[in-house]
TrEMBL record:
<dbReference type="GO" id="GO:0004022">
    <property type="term" value="F:alcohol dehydrogenase (NAD+) activity"/>
</dbReference>
<dbReference type="InterPro" id="IPR018211">
    <property type="entry name" value="ADH_Fe_CS"/>
</dbReference>
<dbReference type="InterPro" id="IPR056798">
    <property type="entry name" value="ADH_Fe_C"/>
</dbReference>
<dbReference type="InterPro" id="IPR039697">
    <property type="entry name" value="Alcohol_dehydrogenase_Fe"/>
</dbReference>
<dbReference type="InterPro" id="IPR001670">
    <property type="entry name" value="ADH_Fe/GldA"/>
</dbReference>
<dbReference type="Pfam" id="PF25137">
    <property type="entry name" value="ADH_Fe_C"/>
</dbReference>
<comment type="similarity">
    <text>Belongs to the iron-containing alcohol dehydrogenase family.</text>
</comment>
<feature type="domain" description="Alcohol dehydrogenase iron-type/glycerol dehydrogenase GldA">
    <location>
        <begin position="9"/>
        <end position="177"/>
    </location>
</feature>
<protein>
    <submittedName>
        <fullName>Iron-containing alcohol dehydrogenase</fullName>
    </submittedName>
</protein>
<dbReference type="Pfam" id="PF00465">
    <property type="entry name" value="Fe-ADH"/>
</dbReference>
<keyword id="KW-0560">Oxidoreductase</keyword>
<feature type="domain" description="Fe-containing alcohol dehydrogenase-like C-terminal">
    <location>
        <begin position="191"/>
        <end position="381"/>
    </location>
</feature>
<dbReference type="GO" id="GO:0046872">
    <property type="term" value="F:metal ion binding"/>
</dbReference>
<keyword id="KW-0520">NAD</keyword>
Length: 382
């Protein structure tokens, strides 16, 4: 067994109604004025007001920035950072899916250390702890509340870059399944498959360890038996709890094992065509899994047994069975079948492949991947 390390530096609160613990958590952190980062969608359905009311019920001042958009840009980060500095807040509450959480991490970096956000692009460029942050995910998908990375779009380069540092981990996370029970079916499905992909890629990663495997396997178990059920009925409390905890465990697994080609390829798709991250990942998954099947060492069968429908015994498993099951899952959940359906054109492929190869996730992918391989993968997925 190769060497590995891990740490769990965060305080995670899970449970139906756990959002009500927010004032207590803020007071533990001596927060008298918090900066709430979220989006207009959550404002329109009353979730932002609900959180603001809970914060203010504890006698804590709250200033909100609500203009986060999917695939957030440098301009959004700069705008939010300026408001944070002007308002005098001392901590951040991140409310939403991956985009508000990613923006919150980057605001926490810039507010503490200054400069431009591109100064921190890459691995371990953040010099120390960021502004104290509490993450409140409203989707069961990103795992961003327990991951050390944030992804921001640089429109000048048409490129999604990552900031990877364990210093950006939120200090606290509040996982309240009630918050995901109002999600539209389309969000529940794409975010749910994204969470499943986090677990799968971490499980197959060259950097996998017994610790990340344990998190990934439990995540696949929980997501596999609850994903279809949750998309069918978001009011199903047991399924919502399974998806929320499964997404969290998947996030922990890839925080320590990294991801693979699915995520390396999906970031350019989102940057070029403004495709939601979870949708891009879901469309690419079967193609990448077929490519990686050449180096399967028995893990495909384990993944298959976690996500397949039915309990009948399976004999003579072949990797193709998992790939077909993933295609069936996407179809059941209304995920597009190909990249062409989400706007990717043939002439984009070479540039997207070059961007994908810049991702550190390619190095963790179980099968070695060249630029020519990446181009062929995009062509197959289109």
């Amino acid at each position: 067994m190769k060497d590995f390390n891990f740490k769990i530096p965060q305080n995670i609160n899970f449970g139906m109604g756990s959002l009500k613990k927010l004032p207590e958590i803020l007071k533990e952190n001596n927060s008298e004025h918090v900066f709430l980062i979220s989006d207009r969608g959550l404002e329109s359905i009353g979730v932002v007001k609900k959180v603001q009311d809970i914060i203010e019920s504890g006698g804590i001042k709250c200033t909100a920035y609500l203009d986060v958009k999917p695939n957030p840009t440098i301009d959004i980060v700069n705008e939010a950072t300026a408001l944070y500095k002007d308002c005098g807040a001392t901590s951040i509450v991140a409310l939403g899916g991956g985009s508000p959480l990613d923006v919150s991490k980057t605001v926490g970096v810039l507010a503490k250390y200054g400069g431009r956000i591109t100064d921190y692009e890459g691995m371990d460029k953040v010099p120390g702890p960021i502004v104290p942050m509490i993450a409140i995910p409203t989707t069961a998908g990103t795992g961003s509340e327990v991951t050390a990375s944030s992804v921001i779009t640089d429109e000048s380069r048409n490129y999604k870059f990552s900031i990877v540092s364990y210093e950006t981990l939120p200090k606290y996370a509040v996982l309240d399944p009630e918050l995901i029970m109002t999600a539209p079916a389309s969000i529940a499905s794409s975010c749910g498959v994204d969470a499943l992909i986090h677990a799968i890629e971490a499980y197959l990663s060259r950097n996998a360890s017994p610790f990340s495997d344990a998190m990934a396997e439990k995540a696949m178990e929980l997501i596999g038996k609850n994903l279809r059920r949750f998309v069918e009925n978001r009011k199903d409390e047991e399924a919502a709890c399974g998806m929320m905890s499964g997404s969290n465990f998947a996030g922990i697994s890839f925080a320590w094992a990294r991801l693979g080609n699915v995520h390396a390829m999906s970031h350019p798709v989102s940057a070029f065509c403004h495709v939601p991250h979870g949708v891009a990942n879901s469309v690419l998954l079967p193609t990448v899994m077929e490519f990686n099947a050449l180096v399967d060492n028995g893990r495909y069968e384990k993944i298959y047994n976690y996500i397949r429908e039915g309990n009948e015994a399976i004999k003579d498993f072949k990797p193709e069975m998992l790939i077909e099951e993933l295609k069936n899952l996407n179809e059941d959940l209304g995920i597009p079948k190909s990249l062409s359906e989400v706007g990717v054109k043939e002439h984009m492929i070479e540039d997207m492949a070059k961007d994908a190869m810049k991702s550190g996730n390619v190095l963790a992918n179980p099968r070695e991947t060249s630029l020519d391989d990446m181009i062929e993968l995009y062509k197959k997925a289109i």
